[in-house]
């Protein structure tokens, strides 16, 4: 970390080198500044050359660690000075431009110039004074450096790497049976064709200590593998990748003796002759190098072996596996052990030599220590070996209560393998992963938020301004491929947002690296400060508070903090508001500040003016502060601010007028504020770095922003919702927005409501022409149109959106016919609701004229030329909300065999369509349909009634049918309705698979989800845990709103029914769908 910080400071010092030239009016001050800046630069240049050697020696030398800590402290201070200067210079430039734009009188301009000149002179003296103090510290650090006799970078000692062999004691291995069988089958199975490759490469990928080498040894020594391959070779590659050494070892394995050959070409030629006609398994263990050229020459010499030969690689880096030629089907991502397996591995060592009675006495603590290992075999072995020599319960309890970084054996044996992975990282990635120590253990990290936090710490520098997020994604992907992160991909409800999690032991390792820079405070009790207690110059802080009493945070002791994250899952931010003025006044080095409210119950009501003192601030998160009504104008002086998160601040009425001064703002996340936020101030168009503007509100008056202000925001991406379009009278303003030039937009929501209360005659509006002018980019994926007032949607651009996958049309109250959406080739989800004047859905909805669809098909015409409407549609929902006009969904009358309509439709929902007479045959006969939901549509409900309905036989093939909230069972068993309940446990059952839990019309009183009964009480969210997955039922005021479906196998189902108990009032219906089509 020290090297990366010093390198960053040296890059930034160049901006200070220009200061002396700007103050020629004060020769003495200019000379002083030039001298101080030059000394700082010289010191850091001198120290930088030995930093790599120093960082490698700090592992064993506490004095070197302390020296590096002092150096980092000074480097951080210099960075603050440089950033303060750049910030003030930028603010001065912004103010100058605004004054010129306002055309102030000459006298006022002169007064302003004098004031600015005075302020800058004071700032110059302040910088000179700070740099003088820095140089005094650097003098001492440079003197101390000479005592350690550091070498230059080229003589750096690398971390120790273990040499592995193929031998293994099977009795020392627990678990991995399934993984072994899968890998053996990939090597020797009848289906292991290798994807047509001459010499397939199979890679085992996972973090350090997870058991990659052990698994490779199990496979290598498996009887089936021994019989299948004529020659098996094990090579420990490690780093660096020495292709000559590896080639010699391969050759010696064939010859059975050492080789005297010299020269790479001679060795490779000899290998080629030996492999010819032989079925070979080559294991390359512990591969690190990403240099493909060295590997390709070696691989070429092996390609003359017999078909069926394989190469098996173990690596921590998925990128290495891909470089070495591993296809996705041959990539084996190794997971951690189960708790039972981990406990067995730990017990074998920990209970060695103990009597049964002694073991049973320690068993309960042993289970908890096994949980501490988080499924990592290396951790289980190390802690098991440690516990073998701990004889009493008290000693075992001490191990359980200790953090991993406080256990000497863990520091000596567990962390070095993780340090190897860290050591291999480039400087930029070391900074990024080290920052993650600030998060609470086990925290799920959103990809987009993590990148913004890195950006706020200036870790993504050195690239074009508009590419920082792209570089952040590349860094995160690289760290994920190197096994520093596990990925948790979001489902449909969170729009595919990628989420990540670190293994607990990687988190512990990072805390060791950052223990002098990272502080975690819990409950404001000095005895519970977790990390960095002795270092009040810590730079990164996390505040976790679980009690309700408002006590003064100890965080004020750490005045050098650059990042402060408040764990909102515990912390009541309403009590924090008492200390915000002091926090803003004292913690002025902050780059990152998270004040989001995760409890929902309380909220910050007012943001103090002192927020303007945080001149370095780049990330401010105020999410979920539901009582926050306004933001102070002083916020607009934070010219470095990049991210402002206002999501779910649904009392926020307006943004500060000067928001256009925050010219570095890149992400203004203000979605879910549309019910309160009534306007966007003028000046938003000056924020040309904006990439996120979730909500843009149009008021239709001269005091606020207009659609034309979107013109220069060419970097917008992701979601954009434009609200208040009903108030727009000038269509040219919509054209000025130039939405089609915003290539990064993926979701566009157009809301034609009028927000200023002037509900003019809707027939006098020009929504149709306005919609045509709001042409989005062709890469758009989601489009929603709400409260549109014209009778037709004739926007020509809509049919050109070939990547559009989701469309919603809602409350278009004057719309008489639906647009021809069947032409959209990528449309997967379609919602249509609240259409009061639509009487029929005709053939035009399918995207073609009736004459075209029903035209005779030529006998020479190929099947592929048949008309296909809605070729990709999977989900279709009509929800008309008691608006009773829709009567006909027009069927096709002839030659339907030539027409393909909705061939991939999976689910259809018809809600509140009381006059709809029937579903067309192309829906009823659709064999891809899996779910049909009809409610508040009496005619359809009668036609689809089980056994007796006119259309029952046509829909009985559909696995899941719900009519008026009653699930109709088709060829499956069911648990009967429970009726009115106060308490109903679910006991052991023999069902094959649990597919759905449906809770209808129930009021949640109490839930216990743990078999031990630890979690009890009233909850606003009901979670039913099933193995690694979970069911989630969201509850609003204890009324169930929706259920997210998850699948589980039989064992998971039994785990659920033995541990989940429901305490409900009124009515509860639980239905199990066991149809084999789901399995």
Automatic annotation (TrEMBL):
GO biological process: defense response; response to other organism
Highest taxon in the source lineage: Eukaryota
UniProt cross-references to InterPro entries, sorted A to Z: Apaf_helical, LRR_dom_sf, LRR_R13L4/SHOC2-like, NB-ARC, P-loop_NTPase, Rx_N, WH-like_DNA-bd_sf, WHD_DRP
Positions of the NB-ARC domain: 198-350
Start and end residues of each Disease resistance protein winged helix domain: 438-509
Domain spans labelled Disease resistance R13L4/SHOC-2-like LRR: 585-887
Transmembrane segments: none
Keyword Nucleotide-binding applies: yes
Protein's UniProt name: Disease resistance protein RGA3
Protein's organism: Gossypium anomalum
